[in-house]
Amino acid sequence: MQLEEYIPFRLEELCQKYHYTRYRLSQLTGISQTALGNILSKSSVPNIFTLDKLCEAFGISLAQFFSSENTYPDLTNLQKEMLILFDGLEIEKRQMLVSFMKSLCN
Q1: What is the pLDDT of residues 11-52, one digit of tens each?
Q2: Tens digit of pLDDT for each residue in 53-70?
Q3: Is 76 helix (H, G, I), strand (E, B) or coil?
Q4: Contacts for 99 with CB less than 8 Å, ≥ 6 apart
Q5: Contact (CB, 8 A) for 53 and 61
Q6: In principle, which of 39, 57, 71, 86 could form an S-S bond with 28, CB 3.0–4.6 Å?
Q7: Chain-centre distance for alpha carbon 37
């Protein structure tokens, strides 16, 4: 799949996963709905800064954006399971879980 096709496909996939509308994604990133529409309709390809803003809205890295779902090399099965469950959480719930885990470590 070409980059021009992959980026809109992956954005649609992430929007569905996190239940984001284009409007919500626009709010979270500061990217106009028109610009998002152009990216999703394959009229334009985002630059690295725009892509980084989009990834930040989903709580993922650029590497995760371009990697297959649920691929975690060199981890135990328990670690993989935890990351898969973590990835399925909304950003607010992720933050709550991290706070809880930090409190366990203290």
Answers
A1: 999 999 889 999 999 999 999 999 999 999 999 999 999 999
A2: 999 998 888 888 887 665
A3: coil
A4: none
A5: no
A6: 57
A7: 17
Q: Quick one: CA dihedral 32, 36, 37, 39, positive or negative?
A: positive
Phi, psi of 31 (to 5 degrees): -90, 130
Quick check: pTM over 0.85?
Answer: no
Residue 14 Cα distances to 66, 80, 105, angstroms = 12, 19, 31
Q: Quote the crossing angle between the two packed helices 22-29 and 33-40, to the nearest 10°.
A: 120
> What gap in Å lies between CA 21 and CA 13, rounded to an integer?
12
State the DSSP code for 22. Answer: H
Q: Residue 9's Cα: distance from chain center in Å?
A: 12
Residue whose token pair is 């990835």? 87
